[in-house]
TrEMBL record:
Residues 6-238 form the ABC transporter domain. GO terms for biological process: L-amino acid transport. GO terms for molecular function: ATP binding; ATP hydrolysis activity; branched-chain amino acid transmembrane transporter activity. This is Amino acid/amide ABC transporter ATP-binding protein 2, HAAT family. The keyword Repeat does not apply. Pfam families: ABC_tran. Keywords: Amino-acid transport, ATP-binding, Nucleotide-binding, Transport. The keyword Nucleotide-binding applies. Belongs to the ABC transporter superfamily.
Length: 239
């Protein structure tokens, strides 16, 4: 089996006359953390949403684990093991933490493994364990982000895509989120991470792509991108 688990070829997304993603191609290898960085409006969310068929592609092909998923409905994609934790958390505010977590399992066939995975996820996020009966909407911003990640993991994905998991979090919590992401990878889940927090993302990733107005302009190992002068100027606040 090839070590590429997710392959995106010539992806294009249009919103009416706006050409948001302009023919990008990239790959994610099994076991890696791959990051897409870029400024506001570069097309990062559109890329993830198009992979999941949450927004339509105007052109392109997506292959996941050897299967062409270009035209599969979102729930079928989730069943195959590809899950998106969307931007802005989108947890269910009127459901408890436990109920939110169970919403992550809807597509699973192996219901007997759910208990085991709940233990796994609560071990990763001990703060949620103490709050299982609390309503999602009453959690702090950081806790809601943890819940969104935890709910994503409850689908037992082979690849977890995350859209700006550190958005709006205090620095200490940002560090915690990035630590958890590494831990999740160490437990065998491949990660595609979209971030505006370029420095933190490049520090933990194996490979990174820079997206500018819908095009990939640079790609390299994270350790090289972090040293790249153009990246430093544009995304790391170093002049
Ligand atoms: P951010 O970091 O700000 O979330 P992004 O890199 O994720 O940005 P996208 O959200 O993918 O960027 O947006 C790419 C472009 O597509 C932007 O110009 C945006 O205004 C436009 N766009 C996104 N969603 C829609 C939509 N539903 N209708 C029209 N235009 C859209």
């Amino acid at each position: 089996m090839t070590d590429v688990v997710l392959s995106v070829e010539d992806l294009n997304v249009h919103y009416g006359s706006i050409h948001a993603v302009k023919g990008i191609s990239f790959q994610v290898k099994r076991g890696e953390i791959v990051t897409l960085i870029g400024s506001n409006g570069a097309g990062k969310s559109s890329t993830l949403n198009a992979i999941m068929n949450i927004v339509p592609k105007s052109k392109g092909k997506v292959v996941f684990n050897g299967i062409d998923i270009t035209n599969l409905p979102t729930n079928e994609i989730v069943k195959l093991g590809l899950t998106l934790v969307p931007e802005g958390r989108k947890i269910f505010p009127n459901l408890t933490v436990y109920e939110n977590l169970m919403m992550g399992c809807y597509a699973r066939k192996d219901k007997n493994k759910i208990r085991e995975d709940l233990d796994w996820v609560l071990n990763l996020f001990p703060r949620l364990k103490e709050r299982l009966k609390q309503l999602g909407g009453t959690l702090s911003g950081g806790e809601q982000q943890m819940l969104a990640l935890a709910r994503g993991l409850m689908s037992r994905p082979k690849v977890l895509m995350m859209d700006e998991p550190s958005l709006g979090l205090a620095p200490l919590l940002v560090a915690e989120v990035f630590q958890v992401i590494q831990q999740i990878r160490n437990e065998g889940v491949t990660i595609l991470l979209v971030e505006q927090n370029a420095f933190a993302a490049l520090k933990i990733c194996d490979y990174g792509y820079v997206l500018e107005t819908g095009r990939i302009t640079l790609q390299d190992k994270g350790e090289n991108l972090i040293k790249n002068e153009d990246v430093a100027k544009a995304y790391l606040g170093i002049s």
